[in-house]
Amino acid sequence: MLNQSFNGGVVIDNPHPVDTVGIVSAPLPDKVVLPLQQRIGDEAIPCVKVGDKVLTGQVIAKTEDHFCVPIHASISGKVVSIDKQIIPHKSGLKSKCITIESDGKDQWAEYKGCGTDFLHCDQATMIEYIQSSGIVGLGGAGFPAHAKLEGIQDCHTLIINGTECEPGIMCDDALMQHHPREVIRGVEILLHICGAQRAIIAVEDDKQEALNSLLMYCHNERISIEQIPTKYTSGAEKLLIKALLDIEIPSGGFAIDTGVICQNVATTKAIFDAVVDNRPLVSRIVTVTGSGVESPNNYEVRLGASFEHIVSMSKPNTHQHTIRMGGMMMGVDVKTTSVPICKITNCIFVNKLETKPSTQECIRCGQCNQACPVDLLPQQLYWYAKSEDTDKAMDYNLADCIECRCCDYVCPSHIPLAEYFSFAKALHRKTTEDQYRTDIARERFEFREYRLERNKQERTEMMAAKKEELKKKMANDKVQKDKIAAAMARVKKTKKANDDA
Amino acid sequence: MMMHSNALNTNQIMRQVMYALVLGIGAAYYFFGWGVILQITLAVVTAVVVESAFLSLRKLPVKPAVSDGSAILSAILLAISIPSIAPWWIVVIGVAFAIIFGKQLYGGLGNNPFNPAMLGYAFLLISYPLQMTTWAGEFLGLSQVIDIIFNLTSVDALSGATQLDEVKTQLALGKVVAELDVHSISQAWINVGFLLGGLYLIVRKIITWHIPVAFITGMVVISSILYFINDQIYLPMQDHLMLGATMLGAFFIATDPVSASTTPKGRLIYGFLIGVLVIIIRVFGGYPDGVAFAVLLMNITVPLIDYYTQPKVFGK
Predict the structure, then answer these.
(1) Chain B nearest CA to A412, separation (Å)
(2) CATH number for the domain whose boundaries are A115-279
């Protein structure tokens, strides 16, 4: 067990614990809805038409954007529509999706990977398999896995995040308990790709079962398994690295800058599937929990199935519910259970509708700054965010806020601090952009003024030069004329003289 | 559906601070009698009336703001800082001033740069120095106190100056410290009462240790230096600690989170300098005690202290 850790963070017990963490295989959904817009990058372009028959694992949309992964059909059947549908996003806005109706056969497209003796494959091929299999970070961030693995120079440590980012979520715990072999093999693949000397699998100390099953399958001396204290925000990459290695990633920097790569356990398992079989990511494990369901559980479910598909299996009670995707701290509220499960849907919280405690004034008690895992002063940031003084808020390092909501959680006045901060960040972005635009416009205007002035001056100079030239020419002409006149006079004179003679 | 911790909310924090005051108030009651209780009652009633009136003028909901307990707490702190036999209008004016000018005019709870109770106290001390420095000399019963507070009998026979005042007068008359009896059983016990209450607040994590420890350290350091320079005219540090409003100031006044520094390092600087100022005002100033002025002076510096004592942010 480790002694060092980061400052702050909050200890929250799992609000809805279960006796045994299992995985239930959810039945094939009748229909799946697959959004074309992923967490980052361009929207994918469909490569199927309405009415096309598709096989499970077949690519149905892709983009040229290198940051993106292709989108695969998660069931076999018929494409019934390509239109805008509600996706699980806090805006509640619709986004373009491909809807596939199942034929009930679940016929898979053919695929071929490196096979079980994958070590003979070179890194580039593996990374290509990872990308073409559609793998993104399954811990909730959705960052494309291949993008993290490309062009690695000096990586000394690979960290596998098995910390379960928030209380209540059990999907990674379940995965480690029931698929330890795949996780360990996945780690070996990642070690091969990134060339690190060692890998550390980080498991929280309340997950003894997961630790035991991993230990049972781990026979590689380059892989160690470390327990870390169960504390919220341990799952955040930079803080996990601090807790495990006592390395502080510089503000604004990335883990790889210090030679560390971090991947989630579920992503690691998916990478194993991708590299060994080149089998695309078409399902994931999702936790369904909360005060609104009788039996919280984990479900292995096809992507694009509706929330309702697995929520109904956890026996929802008859209360009015609120639905939240992701954890209770950083998740997003969604309006209905008809939205599709995405690659980042690690958990669905179904809670009884409760009235929020009313907000009171900030009394600067400082509990927030004790809880802040990145050592900010939320009480000061709140003051400046509220008065929309974003410059001052930036002085107090607003940009470093990870919006983990530890401050919200401990605030005795129940102030939604993180919301203020996310608003202030957006405001700052906007004012900076506006400022940039104004600056550009001003520069252009000033340059135009300068150009007009310069043209005018050049013209005046040119005119003056021309005039001068003309004058000179005229003067020259006069001399010529005089000469001609003189010559003429001379000629006349001579002629007259001749005539006279 | 955001979850909140089960820790205390703002109203409960205010209430805990009031509970922590009980020991000190009990000691004051034991030595000075019913006046202490009567002053607190008058102060609380005034605070509720003034706060409600002002909130309705500002067209704000009255109940949530009054029930947060912050006005009542300020009133209690002011009431226990003034002499238990001060006339009734003293506490009424003081509390009204504290609530209106110290708090509501800045925008209410959380927006006031100064500690409202100390602003009220300073206002009273400057305006009514006589009433503010005449203390009960013995335990007084309820009827006696009612007579005095509502101006029905003369107070002369029953009153005296505080110990700090007395020391100051005697030293001015040319006596040396060794000749003086500076010890005061009543003040020592009241200070002990507030010290225990303050420790309770630290244990309950309602305040952090930074301000009280720095406050007392500041007092100890500066009074020891002075005592070392000349032990004939300067009191030793243990006398300073057990006289006047030391413990009340260290644990209950300077720790008011709204007007205090809010960074860990800043709280140490803030507390230390208040401690230093308290001694300087006590020893060299015109008033017997210096807690109120020291706190108000340091309140002004809080934005500066907070800005320059930001903790190192992760990764910077």
Answers:
(1) 4
(2) 3.40.50.11540
